[in-house]
Amino acid sequence: MKTSKTILLWTLVFLFASCSVMKNSVSNKKTLQQKVESKDFTIYVSRCSPTDLVNSGFNSDVVLKVKNGMACANLPFHGMLNVKQLEIPLDPISFNEPMYDFIMNKNHDGGWVVTFKVKSDPYIYQVNITISTKGRAVAIVTSNERSTMTYFGDVD
After folding, report:
1. In contact, 110 and 90? CB cutoff 8 Å
2. CA distances for 3 relative to 6, 8, 10, 112, angstroms
3. CA distance 139 to 135
4. Cα distance from N-terminal residue to C-terminal residue, the chain
5. Any idea where the domains of the chain sit in the sequence?
6. Within a 13 Å sphere around the CA of 142, how many CA atoms are in the beta-carbon half?
7. Of 103, 155, 105, 107, which Cα lies nearest the Cα of 126?
8. Tens-digit pLDDT profile for the chain (156 aa)?
9. What pTM was computed for the model?
10. Per residue in 6-28, is it b (16+ CB within 10 Å) or e — as a string?
11. Which DSSP state fits 54?
């Protein structure tokens, strides 16, 4: 009798705890609008332009992330350099730096237009992102020494 009461008590505690955890995880999920307007979003890139690649499918680590005043990117680069080709290789666009000159505006269709700059030695990047209300994003990355690249993906 005592054992069955103990088992029943622990079962109720377990069920109560699991329901509480489930309730919190669902209620803490941010909407797209909350993510974008709180400057806490990630763009998972699916393709880019210009590209010479036959298959331009990217894996999940090709991202542009904005969070806590920082911008982080790991993006392929297939354009042209404005400096001597032999001195600087065609490295990806990669940075994890503070943003400055940050501007966010609502788009005419309810989406957002986000603009900011990032200094990442030896380049300065100007990033212009257009995000639709359905979570589609187009990011245009311009540099002082590289040609402009356009990235397409989804916001999470």
Report:
1. no
2. 5, 9, 11, 60
3. 13
4. 52
5. 1-29, 32-155
6. 6
7. 103
8. 667 666 756 665 666 665 544 444 444 688 999 999 999 999 999 888 876 554 456 666 789 999 999 999 988 887 665 555 544 556 888 999 999 999 999 988 899 999 999 998 888 999 999 999 999 999 999 988 888 889 999 998
9. 0.73
10. eeeeeeeeeeeeeeeeeeeeeee
11. S
Reduced to 3 states, what is the DSSP secondary structure of residue 49?
strand
CA 49 to chain centre: 18
> How many Å apart are CA 126 and CA 138, to the nearest integer?
14
45 touches 153 (CB < 8 A): yes
For domain 32-155, is the CATH number 2.40.128.410? yes
Rounded to whole angstroms, the Cα distance separating 70 from 127 reads 13
DSSP-assigned beta bridge partners for residue 96? 72
- Please, is 118 exposed, middle or buried when counting C-beta atoms within 10 Å of its C-beta (0-12, 13-18, 19+)? buried
Task: Give strand pairing partners of 67.
Answer: 40, 70
Work out the number of other CB atoms within 10 angstroms of the CB of residue 101.
9
Match 């990217």 to its residue by tokens. Answer: 58
